[in-house]
Structure formats: structure tokens, C-alpha cells
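Page header: ASSEMBLY MODEL / two components / 794 residues total.
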Amino acid sequence: MALLSIAEPGQSHSPHHHRLAIGIDLGTTNSAVAAVRDGSATVLADEDGMRLLPSVVQYFADGRIDVGHEAKRNQAADPFNTLSSVKRLLGRGLADLAEPQSRAYRLLEAGGMVKLDTIAGARSPVEVSAEILKVLRVRAEASLGGELVGAVITVPAYFDDAQRHATKDAARLAGLNVLRLLNEPTAAAVAYGLERAGEGVFAVYDLGGGTFDISILRLSRGVFEVLAVNGDSALGGDDFDHAVYEWIVAQANVTAPSPSDQRLLLQQARRAKECLSSQHEADIFARLSGGAPVNLELARATLDQLTAKLVARTMAPVRKALRDAELTVADITGVVLVGGATRMPSIRRAVAEYFQRDPLTDIDPDEAVALGAAIQANALAGNRSAAGDWLLLDVIPLSLGLETMGGLTERIIPRNSTLPVARAQDFTTFKDGQTAMSIHVVQGERERVADCRSLARFELRGIPPLVAGAARIRVTFQVDADGLLSVSAREQSTGVEAQVTVKPSYGLTDTEIATMLHDSHTHAELDARLRSLHEQVVEAERLLESIDSALKADDGSWLNDAERASLEGAMASLRDTLKDGDADRIRVAAEALNQISAPFAARRMDSAVGKAFAGRRLTDFA
Amino acid sequence: MPQSYFSLFNLEPRFALPGEQLDAAYRQLAAQVHPDRFANAAPAEQRKALSLATSANEAYRTLKRPLLRAQHLLGLRGVDVLDGGARISQEFLLEQMDWRETLSDARAARNAKGLRQLGDLVRRRAAGLLQQLEAHLDANDDNCAAAQAVQQLMFVEKLLFDIDEAHGLLEA
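Prediction written out in full:
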């Protein structure tokens, strides 16, 4: 697979076997799952033929959980236990939430993260999101009829590190192998680009239920290159609903509405807004819990007035993204609209006016993201693509930096750097004999640390005691293709690797995930241990397969006899452990094989890439 | 000896570098080493791909920007621009101060036309410096003069950045 794919990128390691992979759009309002079948991407429907799954989860006292349409209908009746729009809470602390709509729940703070108090106990947004993902996983397994290799999960381009971690945690909790986190606008561009085979510079305007993203991409000869992204991760269709809700409350003189009245009126507000995308007037009717009726008529012109400020708020990020991409409106070849909220005529008008062209809307704005994710998942799983060979080059949406003296931010990796990216920064001690140093990692564009998002605090220990200023500690930031950050540190003068303790301010540790998985499995039909064994076996088989095909591909010419013997020995031991089915022994044997094969993998990459770029050693650069 | 980003892309170590040539070389390399190509590979290969793709991106970013490209080229020749050596002329500094003043006046007066005129002027200066750089680096092998031009270009690019930002503030 991987080793083979160097020789022929995109080629499956076993061409007769289609590996099942899915793309999931985990949305604020609705979610969807798609897969590539018979060469084209389709959204997978449930038994009733419904393609979208409302991102609503209802918890019951007896441990039962409802997800989707049924839960959505029960929102007004059971407001505290029926959770919607939790995506807005992912990777967030209580202090981050100034939004009135999130006050509809009983929120708790637990370890820097928001939790929601329900009849079934406190639930984190990660757990709630995992319930949605589980339903989609089961739907996909039933629909595709087999084991999934993995999934691509989409996130708003403007999601920060904490929000991305939370999304990945939710997917793992739902039993999904995450092949990649993919930015939503990029996913939509893939769906448009590969389906329509256009070339040029595209702007993707993505207004979802809770987030707004703008991405500028260049599409040229099979390469999707994201030039710039910008956005507002706390602006979406929900805010339009809320503006209408406020209007209803004022017009109908509703004082102190109960939580279920709030939900009811919010639902009516949303319904009216949706109607006004095709109609010019919408009726709003509701009977409040006290018996009082609400009966209003909302005109499209009034809606436009109520939400004009929100529409205008999306335009500042659009201008910034264009400037970061060093382009003007005249350079844009096409504008793609994504997200249900872009059905609003006022949005379409504003976008058309700004870009001086009619936006493209021929793919359903609710489905484009899931479709693009499925296409990417299919390619990552190693299946041959109908569109041929293509590549995605995405960027980091927000700058990463460190806190320096006086609470100011020192930028290490600027926003819109192409992923993966790494930068190093040297530090020194300021006291004689200092052996530890504390480093604070932040993300954001503001000068003051207090205005940025705190991602992690590191303690560097084990610095050799030297005179002040003599130690050279190089801290390296590495952001991977998912946009996730890892940090390492090394004392340069002595070569001592300083110990780094990562304490994510948000998100879950692996142990927490394991515990949650275990807890959920004691309720569910799945035995956690069996599952873990199964995962180890799949993992080990994959490893053996990849080395086998590498050996076959070019007769192992990159190995001498002794090396080949030790590699084959390690492979044989791993095959042995597979027979007796002990998860731990398999893990150890697989790890050993990994270690042994690592140097050969590097050597082989050199020789494979060297065929294309004669005369250089790539390992010199890494 | 620092690693050469030129040789990573199999390019001649010259300042003159057509954008399309660099783009093509980068795409070819990225297509082979991007982590997406190794989604199913063994962890060792994934780590390797991550580090190679990171190098490719860093190399591309460096060679794409003329200022960074010149600095890198000088670095390969053993000249560290930031390590002193080249001296900035009094004349150049006076001109810079003059332009800085024009910028802050235009910003205070929200004078978009003034900003545009200053921008045009400074951009012409930047273009002139790039021409000089090409001559110093590719034709005459005059590293000393090149280092001086790089230092001046740093001032000029910072000024252009600030002019751009002032423009942005006017728009918002």
C-alpha cells in the first residue's frame, strides 16, 4: 500500500478488493454520511430514505438514547435532555460561551471543558457528538455491508486545535478510525472540483448552522491548494434563528418564556426562516405552555432587516481571506455556496454582489461537504479514484504562538501555512542553574495572550544546570495534515532531550477515551476487549501486508541479506502471535516489527523518490 | 553547511527562478511525499512522510518568496545576512524614515489615495532591489552587495506590509 503507492500513487495494494471508507459531515444542525460506490460519491440514507440526520441527541433516564428526527421532534417537550447544536460547544470552556442560545441547557464546567447536565448524567459535547457519529457509522456499515477501514470527518476550516482534537476524540469514541480531519470548504471544493473538473481559483462560502468559513482555493492539474481561510467559528444559521426568535418575543410580548417555550419559539423561528427562502411571507403560530397563543406574520423584508448585521459580519473574513491569498475579486473563477444557511436569498445576494458573479449551487449545499469527504476517504483508503490522481494541500487556519514576557504572543507558525508544517524556536534560561522552564502555547491572531486561545502549557524539565543564557532549548512545533499540533523540545548544547509534558487545556487524554469507551461498551452490545483484539489484528495484518507488498514490489533490493533475515524474523513472530489471539502480545510484536522496518521504509522512500528526482537523498532534508 | 532547498527540488541554485518551474517541482514532490499518500502505511513510514512533506513545504515557502530565496542562497554561500557585515547607508535610512512619516500621516488622515501612491512608490523600489539582487547573485557573484540589497529589501517589505495593513483598516 504505502510503499507501493510511491511507485504508483493512488493504486490500491490489492486491486480486487474495494476498501470501505466513509466521509462524515458532522454538522451543527444536520449531519450526513457518504461513500464512494461504483465510482461515484453518494449520501447514504437511513431505512426511511432520509439522507440528513438532525444533530440532535435525546437522553432518557433508563439509559436509552435517541438521535435524529425523533429527538428533534422532542426538543420543546424535553428541553434539558434533548441536545442540539452541541458542535458549538466542542472544545470549549464555559468562559468561551457568551452566546445566549447555549444557555438553554444546564451547563457545567469540568476540567476546563463544558459539560451538559442531563437526566442520564453530565455529558460532554464530545460524548454527545459521538452518539451522532455512532448512528452514522452503523448506517454506513449496514448500507455498505462490511467493515469500515476508516472515516474522514469534516471540521470547519476555522476550527482551532482544541476543537479539532475534540472532533477527533468524538470519532474515536464512536469506534471510527479517523483517516483524516478535512476542512469543510475544502471538502466541498473537492466535490465540485472532481465532479465538475473545473480549474482556476475558487472561493467557498460556507455558512453552516453554527460556523462560518471562507476558503480561497486554487485548483490546477489535480492539485487543490488552499491559499487562505478565514471565518468566524461562532457565527451561523443559529444566529439568524435567534434574531427571529428575539423578534417574535418582542412582537408577541412574551415575558419570561419557560425553557420549553424558548425551544418551541426557536423552532418556529427556524421554520419561518426556512420558508422565507422560497416564500415572501411566513406564518408563525405557537401555543405557549401557559395557553397563550402566538400568531404572527414575518415578511422576507423584515427577516432581511433583522439579519442584515449578521450577513455583513461574514464579509470581513471574506476580505481578509482574499488579502491573505494576495488576490482580488477579479481573480476568482467561481464561488461555491455550502451550508444550509446559504439558501437564504439575502446571503446569495450579498455574495453575488461582492464577487460580481452568480454563485455555484448545483450540488445540494447540505450534501457537498459529506460527498467531498467520501471522495477523500476513498482515496486515503487506497482505492483507485475515478478522477485519477489528485492531491489536497490544506492550511492551518489560525497562527500558533508562545506567550512571552508581559503576556504578549510570539508567533511561531503564521496562519495559512501549508500543512504539514514545522517551525522551531530557541529559548534560553534566565537564571544560573535553572533546570525547568514553563511554556504556554496559544492560537490566534491577537497580540495579547489573553485574547488568544490557550492550547497547552508545557513544563520542560531536565535542562542541564548551566549559567544563565548558556542552555539552548529548541522547541519545535509540528502541525500534521489534520491540523493538529505536537510539540517537542531538545537542549542543543548537550543534546539532552528535555522532558515535555503536554497538558491539553481542552480535549481528552487517551486514558479518558479508553475509560469512556469501556463505560459505553458496558451498556452496549460490544465487548471492549474483543473490539480491541480485533483492532490489533487488523492493524497487524495491515502492517504485514504493507511490508510484504514492499518486498515484492522491487525484490527488496534496498535490503542486504542480514537485514532481510531480521525483517522476516520479526514478521514471522508477528504472524505467530496472530494465531493465539492475545491483544497485548500482538501489540508488542507489531511494535517490534515497526521498529525494525523503520529504517528500511526511509531508505525505500529515498530510492523511490530518487527515481523521479535523480541524484539526491531525501533523508538529508528530514 | 545548511541543506539546500534548491537541490531538494532538483533546481539550479540561482536567484532567478520562474514561478511555474518551482510550482511544478513542488507539486511533483508533494504528490509523492504528502501524508495523504501514506494513510494506510506503517507508522514509521507515516512519520517519514510527515517529515518529508514538512521539508517540502518549508522549501517551497522559502524559494517562493524572493527575499527568503536570496537569504537562503546567501546562506548556502556562507553569508548570514542577519549577522551584521553589510552596512545600511545613511541615505537609505533617511528615505525609509521619510516614507514611514508619509505612511503614518496617510493613516491618520484615512487618505486611501495617499496610501496607494506610497504603495506604488515602494513597490517600484522593491522591484528595483530584486533586479539588483539578480545581478549581484547570478551574474556578478557579489555576495556583499547582495547582502546589502537583502537588508534593504527587508525594510521595504516590512513597509509594504504595513501599508497593506493600513489599507485593510480603511476597508473595514
